[in-house]
Each structure stands twice: as C-alpha cells, then as structure tokens.
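Whether sequence alone determines local backbone shape is best considered at the level of individual chains. When preparing material for the folding task, we compiled for one chain both its residues and its backbone structure tokens. The sequence in question and its structure tokens are set out directly beneath this paragraph.
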Amino acid sequence: MGERFFLGIADNDRFAYAVMGDLSGKIIATSVGGSVNHHYWGMEQARENFRDLVRQTIGLDGCSRLAGACFTYKADLAVDDWRTWDLVAGFLEDKKVMVEDFAKSSLLGMRGGQNRLLLVGGHCGFAVLEDAEGRQFQVRHDRLMWNPLIRMNGKLQEVDRKHSGQCVEGLLHMKTQFAMGKCMDTFAGSLDHLAHGGSLLALELAHNIAFDLVQMAANLSSRSGTHEPTIGLYGQVLLGSETIRSRVRYLLPLLLPHCRIVDAPLAPAKGAYISSLLTRSSALKAEVIDNILA
C-alpha cells in the first residue's frame, strides 16, 4: 500500500492553495491553482482545478495514496452544501473528505502561542482571534467601505474637491484595471509601483487600508483582553503590497508592543491538512503539529 498522505486545500473564491503531508506532520508538497469553489465557477471548472492541484502535489497516479482531504473556503457567500463528493469523484473515491470552517482552519494552521490572531486583507477585510481559553472573536470590515474601487473613487473625488493639480493618471489606470476584473495581485502591485514612484494619492490609499487592518486587530485585542497575540498576515492585498504590509508591521507593535507578527499565506491550507489528519487520530501528538508548523 505504501505511505499514506493527507491533503488540505484552502480556497478564496479566486485561487486555491494545497498542502500535502504524511502522518508524522511532514509537509511533502504545496501547490496553488484555480478556485475549487463550484458555486462561483461551476462544477466542471472546479473539478478541473482540483485535478490540477492533485497533479501538482502527488500526481494523478498517486491518488490512491491519499488517505483523506479537507477543504476550507473563504467564501463571499454562505453555503450549507459544498458537494465535495461531486467535486472529488474519480480522484478520492472511498476516502474521508470533509469541509472545515475557514477561521478554525486558519488559526489551527498558524504558528504561535496560545493567543493567535489572523488578519485578512484581500477581497474582504476581517480578523479572527482565538485566546488561550479557546474563545473566538471576529470582526469584519464593512464590505462596501473595504472595496478598493470605492476607495479609489473616494480619493479621486477628494482631489476634485480640493482642486489639486496632482497627477491622478496612475490611480485612474488602476481604477480601470480593477473595473475590468483584474485580480487583487494586480491592484497590490500597481499600488506599490505608484507609491514607490512618489504618488501621494497611492500612498494615502495604501496607508488607509493598513490603518483599517490594524484597527481591526486592535479592536479584537481590546475585546478579548489579549495583548500578546501572534498575528498572522493573510490575503492578496495585505501580503501582495509591500507598502501596506510594511505599514501594518510598523503600526501593530505601537499598539500591541508584545505581539509577534508572521506572514501566514499557507495557514488555512495547513489547518485543513491538520483537520484531515485529526480525522485519522483525534489524539494527534503535539510534536506532529509542531512538525507541520515548523
């Protein structure tokens, strides 16, 4: 039969990240591909994207060596039935397949102490914290106010009201790209390019986003009474923009001097992998989880 492996997949409606590892907690492979959210892209496309993730991690001939899989979705809509059996049919027949809550997976897959906070900046902005007692706190930024297109419109209107002669071509180009459906990576990269080129409007926009993210983290810290959290940074805007990420890393220690900050791009997928392992053994040893998060 050979060694058995487990697969964790985290989906954000646009991309999916996969982590595959063994029973000892050793991560064997990671991959990134298209979304496996069939509610957005249809079952045919979701299955094709899942097939590609499997091909990248263990190979299509290695499916029989997968003992289980866990999916977690950072979905923009509430879904009760993810139809995972339809999604994995032909790949993971007779295997344990499950769906885990995104916040739970993300916190489980983070390195750090007993107080862990995930700060998300992507198509939406939110934060979730779990304290030493296992209590969970969440806060979500207003979706309309978070929207980058609305933010850019606001900045351009401010320029009009102030009759500023500052060049706005760069911001207008970004607005056009985003309106045409360009991904958040493009937005983050363009924002950095303009900010590094001396655009005060772009710098203001980046710092406003960073401030909103930091404010959510501070809000959760205050509500929970936790002042020494490990804070994981996640999301295409937060991790994709050096300007935003560096500002967040600068501001957080000013408000939470004893916090620890880590980039956590694979935390949800690692957490899903751990959840899949836990279905095999609920008494998973601490050193196994340490291996995964090392």
